[in-house]
Amino acid sequence: MSAPLMPAAAGDSPKQTLPCPCPIADAVDGEGEVHLLHAADPSLATLEAASSATGLGGGHMTSSWWWRTRSLNAPSPFQQFGPCGRIMKNSAMVMQIQDPASQRLTWYKPPLTVLVIKKVSDASVLAPFVQLVDWLLQEKNMVVWVESAVLEDAHLNEDVKFKAIREKLVTFKDGRDDLTDRIDFIVCLGGDGTLLYASQLFQQSVPPVMAFHLGSLGFLTPFRFDNFEEQLTSVLEGHAALTLRSRLRCVMHRKGDKRQEAKVEANADARPAANSILVLNEVVIDRGPSPYLSNIDLFLDGKYITSVQGDGLIVSTPTGSTAYAAAAGASMIHPSVPAIMVTPICPHSLSFRPIVVPAGVELKVSVSPESRNTSWVSFDGRNRQELFHGDSLRVTTSIYPVPCICAQDQISDWFASLADGLHWNVRKRQKCLDELSDLTASGSEETLDEMENMKLYDI
Predict the structure, then answer these.
(1) For the whole prediction, is pTM greater than 0.70?
(2) I need a surface site. Which of 125, 263, 273, 432 has the fewest CB within 10 A?
(3) Phi-psi category of 176—alpha, beta or left, where left has phi over 0 and alpha has psi -120 to 50?
(4) Rounded Cα distance, 40 and 23, in Å
(5) Alpha-carbon Rg for the chain in angstroms
(6) How far is Cα 32 from Cα 89, in angstroms, rounded to an integer?
(7) Distance between CA 234 and CA 110 in Å, rounded?
(8) Which among 172, 142, 166 has a CA at the least distance from the CA of 232?
(9) CA-closest candidate to residue 204, choices 234, 189, 182
């Protein structure tokens, strides 16, 4: 990406400014090309550094140019290395990636249909469900969809208010009705399972999802139901930030099916196959009921990486990094980080640590020829299938993420979930030393026993 440098006009201040987040020129290489770097100042980007770059010669740049940036993406790296080295230019490989911090919801036409997903077998959700559905029907004049099983709830049917609106609801049956392009907006009432269910219902493009915390953990449900009218109105008017939670496209290849042997294309999930499943959290390969260790071969872009000997393997998205993978010892990754996590389950090797690979790779998992048993595969805890010798599972990042509406913003919501849902890094605060601690700083000859008697080490 390049742009010309504009000389300052006579009488102008040498420091000119551009509105953020416009990038600024950070260096000029030997061919006169200007490389761009995100401005670090949160509100303004300055051309002062760019004007000084022309005097450096050969594109050398000082470390003071690497400012902090508001963008959630890393700054574009400087592409010249020393006096002679540089990255080979390949215009075919240039990509435009939108800054995740700038992802905001917009409606190009008013949403008319809304799917309401509620937690099943939970009486505490019934009253909020009826209140929400009635408000959407009466106040917003929206067409409300619910799963047909919801209408079979005996406790719900005893509600007088629900009886008045029951006939106005449109129903569907999971596994029978296709909701693609029929739903404009999704509202979840419950826990994280409601969001996983929404992801399962839409195996291609997913409508924006607004999740209210009425369940147990609520890591993926940032909204509180107290003032739902105000919050929903704001979202329906297009005032909301989005977190695009990536999903994994998983394709089972059975032994002997030659039609499936071709490599999974990058855009293949634009044409979903019957054996293709999109997962929001993770795909788990384990030993099932067998007493023997799993022996699973792992390939990355066709190259053999390692064999997993243990209880199994978790391949997860950044969203899934706070689920099963976290319990298996993996790091927790922000959902805006483009990555795939590979986490062994109880590996029979102390050196087998979880790894993170780029989101654009293709992983292939197969049962090792030496394995004493088969393996079992589950997708977000569902659709459990057996993986036989000669079968393989291919996993790539899908082009269809789940657009989750933020209560505040991507960073605040995630850390609030870590604190509230997982009690991340919660411990009692260490007490500070009292005034007598100055004795230790001044080289006092008090012994440790005397200091303990003075209770200076009360922590």
Answers:
(1) yes
(2) 432
(3) alpha
(4) 9
(5) 28
(6) 15
(7) 13
(8) 142
(9) 182
Structure tokens of 279?
């997962």
How many residues in total does the chain contain? Answer: 459
CA-to-CA distance for 177 and 173, rounded, in angstroms?
A: 6
Q: Decide: 133 and 161 in contact? Cβ < 8 Å.
A: no
Digit-coded pLDDT (tens) for 177-198? 899 899 999 999 999 999 999 9
| Placement of tokens 């032994």 in the chain | 255
Half-sphere exposure of 261 (CA within 13 A, CB side): 6
Give catalytic residues, as residue numbers. 192
Q: How is residue 161 written in tokens?
A: 């208010």
C-alpha closest to that of 317 among 286, 357, 285, 345? 357
Report the pLDDT averaged over residues 283-296: 96
Cα(337)–Cα(320) distance, rounded to whole angstroms? 12
Break the chain down into helix, strand, coil percent, rounded to 5.
25, 25, 50
Contacts of 197 (CB under 8 A, 6+ apart): 117
Q: What band does 4 get if pLDDT is binned at 50, 70 and 90?
A: very low
**Is it the case that residue 99 has pLDDT exceeding 90?**
no
CB neighbours of 48 closer than 8 A, spacing ≥ 6?
Answer: 14, 15, 16
Instruction: In whole angstroms, give the CA distance from residue 165 to residue 134.
Output: 7
Phi, then psi, of 367 in degrees rounded to 5: -75, 130
Q: What whole-number distance in Å separates Cα of residue 388 and Cα of residue 296?
A: 11
Residue with tokens 């209408």: 151
Tokens of 299: 């390939």
Mean pLDDT of the residues in the chain: 81
Residue listed under structure tokens 């006169």: 32
Rounded Cα distance between 340 and 362, Å, is: 10
CA angle 4, 8, 9 (to 5 degrees): 125
Q: Which H or E run contains 77?
A: none
pLDDT digits over 105-151, tens only? 999 999 999 999 998 888 899 999 999 999 999 999 999 999 999 98
User: Has residue 63 got a pLDDT over 70?
Assistant: no
